Amino acid sequence: MQMGEGVEWGLHCCVTLGWLKDEGPVSIRRLAAWFDLPQEYLKKRLQALTRAGILASTPGARGGFSLAKPPEHITMMDVVTALEGPAEAFRCVEIRQRGAGAEGGQFRRPCGISTAMRRAELAWRRELAGQTIADLMAGAAPSGERTRRNYARLRG
Amino acid sequence: MQMGEGVEWGLHCCVTLGWLKDEGPVSIRRLAAWFDLPQEYLKKRLQALTRAGILASTPGARGGFSLAKPPEHITMMDVVTALEGPAEAFRCVEIRQRGAGAEGGQFRRPCGISTAMRRAELAWRRELAGQTIADLMAGAAPSGERTRRNYARLRG
């Protein structure tokens, strides 16, 4: 079970755009160069974040991406859901109700396996929903300083 | 991010083999019919559980699969790891250290994104490690009764 690589890309871009909020939109070309990522693939991920209302996309020669709302209102869970979809990792297809084993079955209660899987997934979601882009920015202040410094040099 | 369907299969087979422990090994043919699953695909999953020491495989005409240890010593996490591998769902490739953004970087501390992802994954693992096959059996006692009844009819 693997998350797509786009999750790491999207989270780092959100944190970076948070640090560069006074610079206006950052072009996809610059964001791709920032992390040495393939521009077209990165663009697809940032467009998904835009559709989810996490990023704003400004068209035009001076356009690019910026955070659509304050970083304390964007959780890691929001970013993961926008990029990986809302589906739970465990899909229960109720095999207990099929085949020779199910004969004479009633199955009034939800499957214990499915319930336990959901509980584990909720614990995971709770952790990610409790961590915002602002928290990540605050936890890496030296990187924020370097980001602003390097970006100023890039523009200068 | 999706778990393979084999996880549901594997967990239900473990619970069913727990209920049928007095019956000796259960053939792959019967287990597949039990849940109306494709025999060859199911066999691959049960072989993975056997390699992980969760199931025991007995060869021969009266052979089949059984639990390799008491159900209270097999956790849901054990089964998921045997079937999905031990890798974490989030793979950090340290893109923060690449490209124009990393210039002048030191990165002495672990990445906050990676740390938060790991914390969430640990919460998920903790839940699954706290739930055993014996717990699942105990939580579905009527299904255990039906399983034994249907199996006796199948053999009779």
From TrEMBL, chains A, B:
InterPro entries: TR_Rrf2-type_CS, Tscrpt_reg_Rrf2, WH-like_DNA-bd_sf, WH_DNA-bd_sf
Cellular component annotations (GO), alphabetically ordered: cytosol
SUPFAM superfamilies: Winged helix' DNA-binding domain
Transmembrane segments: none
Single Gene Ontology MF annotation: DNA-binding transcription factor activity
One Pfam match: Rrf2
PANTHER family for the chain: TRANSCRIPTIONAL REGULATOR-RELATED (PTHR33221:SF13), WINGED HELIX-TURN-HELIX TRANSCRIPTIONAL REGULATOR, RRF2 FAMILY (PTHR33221)
NCBIfam families linked to this entry: rrf2_super
UniProt name for this protein: Rrf2 family protein
